[in-house]
Design goal:
By secondary structure, the chain is α/β, with parallel strands linked by helices. Among the domains are: 45 residues, no CATH class; 143 residues, no CATH class. The protein contains 13 helices and 13 strands. Strands 1, 2, 3, 4, 5, 6, 7, 8, 9, 10, 11, 12 and 13 form a 13-stranded parallel β-sheet that branches. The longest helix is centred in the N-terminal third of the chain and has 21 residues. The chain is globular and about 80 Å long. The chain starts with 7 loop residues before the first helix and ends in a 29-residue tail after the last strand. About 5% of the residues have low confidence. It comes from Paraphaeosphaeria sporulosa.
Amino acid sequence: MAFSCLPPELTLSIAERLGPFSSFDFALTCKPLWDLCNTLIQKHKRLFAEHRVINAQDSSWPRTNHILWDKLKEIVNDPNIGEYVRELNLPSSRAIYLDGDACHDFQLTEESAKVPQEDIDRFADAGNRIHDLLQSVDLGYGVPGPREWDEWLLHGSSEPIIVMLVQHMPHLRTFRFTDLEMNNVFFGCLCAVAVAYKNPVLAPRLPFQHLTTVSVAHWDTEMSCNVEWCQLFCAIPSVRNFIASAMGGDGLDGMVLPAQLPKSNVTELVFHYSRFETSAIEAIVSNTPRLEKLSYELAGATVAEDISPMPKKDLEALVEHVGHSLQHLVFETPEYGDDFEDDLPKVSLRGFRKLKTLRIDWRLLWPTDEMIPFDNAEKSDGGFYEEEEETAESDFDVRSVLPASLEKLYFTGSFTEEEKELVKKIREAPSDYTPLLNKIYIEDRSVSFKEEEVPGIYANPLFKYLEGHGN
């Protein structure tokens, strides 16, 4: 039976039951249906504009805008509202607790605001459903128990509120957060969610079904956010982009074993001002077989003072784990030198089979024993380098360690005039090592400087997701 044969009231009732987006598709099938459903479509349009982004930012102090609690009440009263949410933004300038004077749990007092009992009762069903689901995941540890969950909720923590919110946002696409007070409840729940996605029975009932983009920043000017945020979010099947600021660590002491996680579908990773041991790089990229783009800006010791990064070893790990898929690499380090004396003497990028664009400190690619010595540098026998020995580096063709697929190369770092001339000569003479390489740029603005050809990390379109986050 055609819809045109049905009473208009029945047809409209069907459209209302379809939800905001299916009803739109339904209305598009013919002009009479569009005319009939126009008021309904306009209602969905208004609600989408109103609820598409939940931004918990609060510029006041003490924090008085309890956006997350209020939004959860609204959604519990009308679950359809969650259908419209596409982005959840949790900057550090948000109400972390109902007590607006507290940013950390140790700042809570006996007088701190508590969640009213009527709200606890209102949240009970929503909390029990997600809590029971996550408790069914066999982690052995990590997911807060019922008593612990209730205590955090009662004390006005936003963490259980966030967990309940994401469960009621089935079409959430973007999740942006600063890691301030996210480790007591939310982190453990995320561990369970990531592991549960490997279970085909549990997977359809989990949050983040349509999540594609995640960004995380550390809340303080020192130290870093946990590497596991990356590993866990990247294990969610729908996620394609992950961006982090001030992330660090060795990736060795995680709550979840890599074998417990499903393989990632992530295609781009961005690590701004971060500092990893090679073991952390391996822990991340060994589970991202579809990775196409990687941007990594190595930070100083204030991010992770106990970490001793080795950039050449990091590059070797990238070749091993994502050499089959990576197409774009931005690898920005402080000027490569004595700070990395424990690093490998040399590295080859020939193992990258699809890499097209590369931005890198040029000294990373020259073997240590090929570097030009300083003018008049003293030799071990007490003599001095002769002029012909000073140009030994010119015998090394950097293209011999570059992938054959490379099309554009951007060298960063400091250059002497001799080194600039060396790069010029390489640029002017084609090589069988890199038959597709047609552009070589160096950082000197006077020599064919075109940053837009191989943009740095700050020009990455995903960098916008870090705006308003961190400290």
